[in-house]
């Protein structure tokens, strides 16, 4: 079921016609033949009009349709109606539906609805539109970068022989360039050798990927849902064999059993339904019903038998997709609604563990206790009973900082991953204390490279914070780490820092000397300033999910309110109140100023030196961070001033944003990792920068007049 269509305020475009914006946003990512089909014209017209806009030098890259389709969807979600979008993507409605659901909740990231839009068709330009287009072409010509880096070439830097595995503890990440959806069906190279070599060199010994059980094992409840499971198993085995050559295990992230949407209910599933969850328009399959529990067991057992060398299964039983009836609060299931959550939820993990054990394999089971929290109504008593109810063979995996953390004497409630606010939190420490008493293995889920605080560079250079966090976890006795969600899987110096920290003879100064040579002292001083500045991050879940820090200058500006709500890490629009989360707009702005001032001090220390590739990357990503948050600050100020504000001040803000955009454009032009995250693909491309610069020039003219 595709997201519903709603009538909302239509966004203005910054080209004379809407069809030109379709070309501007998609040229080079979608071939001219397909664009012609979408716009009801021919290839020659598309190429002529691209040349008229002065973007014909953007080279077509067919990989975008395969590896960057999320970006294409985002570019056109508020531009094209469904039927044209399907033509553009060359997907069926069913394929788009699967993508929106399984590509890390892409449908939710897009807002959970599709705006009502009239079809966009080509029509010849008027004389006035031609003149306006010529003006745009001149502006593009002044900034256009001919040799913009080719996308998806993530592993072009020379391989630096690393330290290797610092101990036997699990150090698991997500493959930086792996798609999140149905990864195993086409057998593509989701974990290239170039990545595996680099991951091994920084001590990573595990890679996780999403596993949807109905795609990997026979599914008895809905005919045809398991189509292709044998192919996926075959490809999974091949992937496991490949990774084993580098001493890296493969883990499946399992969030099961999945709920059933209203349109999928049939005579078989109807008696198995548990609770109804209105936001998803789905019913859970009650795991206390015999048939459901038997399915979960047999599906895992069958999978374990077929893929016996799988490194492990990482479960998640709260939040995320609708699965067991207690995965959300307010369980009204007629069967398990009267039971306690600490009876139902651990048993899902236990069924999976029993199936793996009975299959005679060495597959590990890691129970991720994500959202076993007070927000989901877990009391300390529930936690103790829940942990005790878990099978002894299950390793307990806790998000380190998800709860109350105390930094510099101030308590913060952290509902998500954080690098700026250092764990472990009080709740995680409590779970660890229970695990210690029971003699259970316990692990930590942390973000090391980046987080939703900022995810548009491979890592945030705040080594002081990383060291403090990992040392805190070592003191707790943690053995094993999940070091990234979908973001944060690139084999960086920050991951190697953790690898070295887990050894007995680590020396920070020696580590920096090895990585940065004669500039190690410069790096140490600069990174110390970055770390101090990042502690000041205005943290709230509203900022993390709604703020414009992921897209930075890639977010378009508008003279008047869009009246649209920000969506999760995708469309910030101009919803500044959502960006600020628990902060007032004034306090949020002040916090950004203070953080940026401190960060700029670090930049002043590290810039102007000629260093090795590792040093150049650190300087580059420190600048990317600064430019993104400088843009956030500009956006907050512009939105407050644009209606009835001081014209000179508005023009000054527009000029600064143009400078920020041009600077980031030049950086992104030489490093294809800038602006990329595995589940969101590219936050921006060359096309995005060009459209933003046209947008700013247009606004400048409007405010001048």
Unreliable spans are none
What does the overall shape look like? globular
- Average pLDDT level: 95
Radius of gyration: 25 Å
Structural class: alpha/beta
Query: Major sheet: order of its strands?
Result: 3-4-5-9-10-11-14-15
Q: Helicity range of the residues?
A: 40-55%
The helix tally amounts to 26
**How many strands in all?**
17
Short summary:
With 705 residues, the protein is an alpha/beta fold.
Description:
The protein has 705 residues and is α/β, with parallel strands linked by helices. The protein contains 26 helices and 17 strands. The strands form five sheets. Strands 3-4-5-9-10-11-14-15 form an eight-stranded parallel β-barrel. It has a three-stranded antiparallel β-sheet with strand order 6-8-7, with no helix packed on it. α13 packs parallel to α14 and α17 packs parallel to α18 (493-501). It is globular, with a radius of gyration of 25 Å. It starts with a strand and ends with a helix.
Question: How is this fold's topology laid out?
Answer:
Blueprint: E1 4-6, H1 18-26, H2 32-39, H3 43-53, H4 63-67, H5 69-76, H6 82-89, H7 93-102, H8 106-109, E2 113-115, H9 127-143, E3 171-174, H10 193-201, E4 206-211, H11 213-216, H12 229-244, E5 249-254, E6 260-261, E7 273-277, E8 282-285, H13 290-306, E9 312-316, H14 341-358, E10 364-368, H15 380-389, E11 394-399, E12 403-407, E13 410-414, H16 426-438, E14 442-445, H17 463-476, E15 481-482, H18 493-501, H19 508-516, H20 520-534, H21 541-546, H22 576-580, H23 585-606, H24 613-641, H25 647-668, E16 676-677, E17 681-682, H26 686-704
Parallel strand pairs: 1-2, 3-4, 3-15, 4-5, 5-9, 9-10, 10-11, 11-14, 14-15
Antiparallel strand pairs: 6-8, 7-8, 12-13, 16-17
Helix pairs in contact: 1-26, 2-3, 2-6, 13-14, 14-15, 15-16, 17-18, 19-20, 20-23, 23-24, 24-25, 25-26
């Amino acid at each position: 079921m595709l997201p519903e269509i709603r009538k909302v305020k239509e966004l203005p475009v910054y080209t004379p016609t809407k069809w030109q914006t379709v070309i501007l946003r998609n040229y080079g990512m979608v071939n001219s033949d397909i664009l012609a089909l979408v716009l009801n014209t021919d290839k020659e017209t598309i190429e002529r009009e691209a040349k008229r806009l002065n973007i014909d030098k953007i080279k077509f890259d067919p990989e975008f349709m395969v590896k960057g389709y999320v970006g294409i969807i985002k570019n056109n979600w508020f531009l094209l109606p469904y039927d044209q979008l399907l033509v553009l993507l060359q997907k069926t409605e069913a394929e788009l539906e699967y993508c929106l659901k399984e590509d890390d909740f892409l449908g939710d990231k897009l807002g959970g609805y599709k705006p009502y839009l009239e079809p966009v068709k080509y029509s010849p330009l008027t004389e006035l539109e031609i003149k306006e287009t010529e003006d745009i072409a001149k502006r593009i010509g002044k900034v256009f970068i001919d040799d913009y880096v080719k996308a998806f070439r993530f592993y072009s830097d020379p391989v630096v022989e690393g330290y290797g595995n610092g101990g036997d503890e699990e150090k698991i990440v997500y493959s930086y360039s792996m798609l999140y959806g149905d990864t195993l069906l086409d057998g593509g190279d989701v974990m290239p050798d170039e990545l595996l070599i680099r991951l091994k060199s920084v001590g990573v010994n595990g890679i996780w990927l999403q596993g949807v059980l109905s795609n990997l094992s026979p599914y008895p409840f809905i005919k045809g849902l398991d189509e292709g499971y044998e192919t996926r198993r075959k490809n999974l085995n091949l992937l496991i064999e490949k990774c084993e050559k580098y001493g890296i295990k493969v883990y499946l992230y399992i969030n099961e059993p999945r709920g059933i949407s209203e349109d999928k209910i049939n005579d078989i599933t109807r008696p198995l339904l548990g609770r109804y969850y209105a936001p998803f328009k789905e019913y859970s399959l009650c795991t206390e019903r015999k048939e459901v529990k038997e399915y979960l067991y047999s599906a895992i057992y069958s999978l374990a038998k077929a893929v016996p060398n799988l490194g492990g299964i990482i479960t998640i039983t709260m939040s995320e997709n609708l699965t067991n009836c207690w995965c959300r609060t307010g369980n009204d299931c007629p069967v398990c609604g009267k039971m306690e959550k600490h009876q139902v939820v651990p048993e899902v993990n236990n069924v999976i563990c029993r199936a793996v054990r009975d299959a005679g394999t060495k597959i590990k089971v890691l129970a991720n206790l994500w959202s076993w929290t007070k927000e989901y109504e877990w009391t300390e008593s529930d936690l103790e009973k829940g942990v005790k109810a878990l099978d002894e063979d299950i390793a307990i995996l806790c998000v380190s900082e998800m709860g109350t953390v105390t930094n510099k004497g101030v308590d913060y409630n952290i509902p998500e991953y954080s690098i700026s606010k250092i764990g472990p939190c009080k709740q995680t420490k409590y779970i660890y204390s229970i695990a210690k008493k029971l003699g259970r293995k316990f692990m930590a889920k942390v973000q090391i490279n980046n987080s939703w605080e900022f995810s548009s560079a491979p890592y945030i250079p705040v080594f002081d914070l990383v060291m403090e966090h990992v040392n805190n976890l070592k003191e707790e006795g943690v053995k094993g780490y999940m070091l990234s969600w979908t973001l944060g899987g690139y084999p960086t110096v920050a991951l190697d820092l953790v690898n070295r920290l887990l050894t007995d003879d680590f020396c920070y100064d020696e580590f920096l000397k090895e990585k940065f040579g004669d500039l190690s002292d410069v790096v140490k001083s600069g990174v110390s300033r970055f770390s101090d500045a990042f502690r000041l991050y205005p943290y709230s879940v509203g900022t993390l999910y709604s703020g414009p820090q992921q897209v930075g200058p890639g977010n378009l500006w508008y003279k008047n309110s869009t009246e649209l709500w920000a969506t999760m890490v995708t469309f910030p629009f101009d919803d500044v109140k959502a960006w600020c989360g628990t902060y007032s707009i004034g306090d949020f702005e002040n916090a950004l100023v203070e953080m940026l001032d401190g960060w700029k001090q670090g930049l002043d220390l590290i810039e102007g030196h000629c260093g090795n590739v590792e040093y150049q990357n650190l300087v580059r990503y420190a600048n990317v961070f600064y430019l993104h948050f400088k843009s956030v600050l500009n956006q907050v100020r512009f939105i407050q001033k644009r209606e009835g504000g001081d014209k000179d001040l508005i023009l000054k803000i527009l000029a600064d944003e143009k400078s920020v955009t041009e600077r980031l454009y030049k950086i992104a032009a030489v490093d294809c990792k800038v602006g990329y995250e595995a589940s969101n693909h590219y936050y921006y491309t060359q096309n995005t920068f060009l459209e933003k610069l046209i947008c700013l020039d247009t606004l400048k003219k409007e405010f001048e007049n």
